[in-house]
Write a structure and sequence with these properties.
mainly alpha; about 210 residues
């Protein structure tokens, strides 16, 4: 009987240490919604790129009008804002339900480790766009986002690491198949977010 009590105590201590070192308030539903938002954004971007009368050239050497670039920027910015707001709102709700604080040393480390690769990639992609190099934009967004997920995964749920690795693989494949960048973008940010969000929901959120 005492051995069972000791084992239970050890499990409780292990769980407390895990909770203190990992941010576990990420919501699987937010991942699913982010995937849906991404599919909508991909469709809007497709219409902007391929149905804009001022778009010229092949995918590898697109010449896009200034207005089209502005529309793409608005689509990307809107996607990012809505996804962040949704993730923050649902994480706050999950943390409140578990009587946890969403802003703590662990979440700070998570944010810092996530933003370093993400902002680096963001500035790099902006420089490419400024040079009218559009063919690598879709692959690099996948790769740098995947690196951000892998880098931050040690401070949150382990599934985030596998999401990041999947994104990196899709980004590399997208670099090889340059003419299908938007397809890989939809697979990565859309389908993978929905898939991994669903896995996280059934593993951690559903009670």
């Amino acid at each position: 009987m005492e051995n069972k009590d000791y084992l239970k105590d050890i499990q409780d201590i292990k769980q407390m240490m895990t909770q203190s070192s990992r941010f576990i308030s990420l919501s699987g539903i937010s991942g699913i919604l982010a995937g849906i938002y991404s599919l909508i954004a991909t469709w809007l971007a497709y219409k902007t790129i391929y149905f804009d009368t001022s778009t010229l050239g092949s995918y590898e050497n697109l010449v896009i009008s200034y207005d089209a670039v502005v529309r793409l920027f608005v689509i990307a910015a809107s996607l990012m804002i809505v996804s962040i707001f949704t993730g923050l709102l649902l994480s706050l709700r999950k943390a409140a339900k578990a009587n946890e604080k969403i802003w703590n040393p662990t979440s700070k480390r998570l944010l810092i480790n996530f933003l370093i690769p993400l902002l680096t990639g963001g500035f790099f992609i902006v420089f490419l766009i400024e040079k009218n190099i559009f063919g690598l934009v879709a692959p690099l967004t996948l790769i740098f986002y995947g690196l951000a997920c892998v880098n931050a995964s040690k401070y949150t749920l382990g599934d985030v690491r596998y999401l990041g690795i999947t994104m990196i693989i899709l980004g590399l494949l997208s670099t090889w198949f340059l003419g299908y960048g938007l397809l890989f973008w939809a697979l990565g940010f859309g389908v993978c977010h929905i898939l991994y969000g669903s896995i996280m929901y059934f593993k951690y959120d559903r009670n």
